Amino acid sequence: MSGELEDLQDLFHRLDRLEKAERETAAALLRGWLASQNRGEEVNPSALPGKFGMIGGSPAMQTVYDLIARVVRTDIPILVLGESGTGKELVAKALHEYGGRRRKELVSVNCAAIPAELLEAEIFGHVKGSFTGAHRDRVGYAEAAEGGTLFLDEIGEIQLDLQAKLLRFLQDGEVRPVGANKTKHVDVRIVAATNRDLLQRVKSGDFREDLYYRLAVLTMELPPLRERQEDIPHLVRFLLHKQQQDGLPSAQISDAALQVLQCYSWPGNIRQLQNELVRAATFAKEGVIEVEDLSSVVRAQD
To answer: Residue 137's pLDDT is what?
Structure first.
């Protein structure tokens, strides 16, 4: 038993000699100590329903797990579809870490986060002097992933001219760094992801049809959180535990607050749920998230 708790218990043993204000102070200190011990419920992630490092036991997630199990040992390109925040990068990580390329690198590229004029050099690399600011040769993400997996997130955002070069890379396995005269052969597995309707972009002329079919040898669609609400309690336990492990605000959660979370539609999916839990844990009193600690948006159920 810690010395702090012993001091508080001793204080309570002398309640008959304490003034009212002192008794209230002692009670508040003891409640705070107990809450600090309970903050962040002990969770064994392996005991939660899920597979491949992902959490959830709903029928929609079982379909995802079955697809991953079928293709994880192959090298076929995978196109992961789903709304923002549904965990598309987790699928890429699962395909890599549970597959035959796990001893090599998983290299992730967010195609929407890199300016269009720099994206080619980032993916394929460049040689010194090939453009302003290219002060030395630089290996691109594709070459850095040699023997491993290249994850191209937000693939629907790349420009048409780069799409043609990406198609050649997928066909031949060769990259030509910007400004170079020679190509290099690269052995990588491609996993791409998008929250856009790529077939609609093909119809509108914004995405190459041949590239689409090269990427979509197999498509995997992740369900939005509103279609797997039975997984929310498990996700909440996991995320609160992870917050504690990462040094972020964490707490337990009341049944009433958990019910509110299950009734919300979560347009931002798991990423929004995670942000909500960090916020709620920050405002939680005595280490327990109550309904009033949730944001007004989440509490405003129809």
So the answer is: 82
